[in-house]
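To: structure subgroup
Subject: Chain for Friday's discussion

All,

I'm putting the inputs and outputs inline so they're searchable in the archive.
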Amino acid sequence: MSAGAAEIVIRVEGLVTRLGGQVLHDHIDLDVRRGEVLGVVGGSGAGKSVLLRTIVGLARPQAGRIEVLGQDMTRLAGDALRLLQARWGVLFQDGALFSGQTVAQNIQVPLREHTDLPQRLMDEIAAVKLGLVGLPQDAAQKYPSELSGGMRKRAGLARALALDPEILFLDEPTAGLDPISANQFDELVRDLQQSLKLTAFMVTHDLDTLRATTDRIAVLVDRTLHVGTMAELVHDPHPWIHEYFAGVRARAVPDS
């Protein structure tokens, strides 16, 4: 299927959001195609995470329309919203695991919320998801405080994958990781995206991650959105975008 004919699984139209009286997004439009990895970047305070939270229904926009998997998020509530939310998974920064629950219990949170599966089957699913993200089976009974930062990210990713989602949302997935761990996590995300046929919406500031994983990139700058491939954005005339993709730090990132 050509890019032009690709199914749109997330459509944002005329989105306006404010935080503390400040406009973060000023009538922005964005389409996310099925099967792609879309990276979202921008300066500090540009509203990257707010955009993600608004799309998944954790924040309300002041204006605009958000359609996910063919359904209008601004019109859904109750059971209809819960059914739609079961079709995606979210990895928040640092995994956002519940500290008083084991890794297995954390992975099972979406299963408990959206299904009535017996405990035996939930234990089996948790074990499968642990293997999927490269964690040893003995991690299941550990608590988040007993894990390294990289392991917490993988445990959070296992939870995000618990319901076999169609869309994966990731908020700064490699933040705080050393370069080797970040590279391994990038490879894991890309491998899972391809093998599970996922659509991924990834907020990040990491140029290495953008280069290794994304098909297109959406740049939030001056309350507007610029979308393209990395090769296209290098030539964007906006000063911040040009410096980000063609500046000294960008030139230090080797071509793949």
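Points worth raising on Friday:
The chain is about 35% helix and 25% strand.
The CA atoms of residues 132 and 185 lie 12 Å apart.

D.
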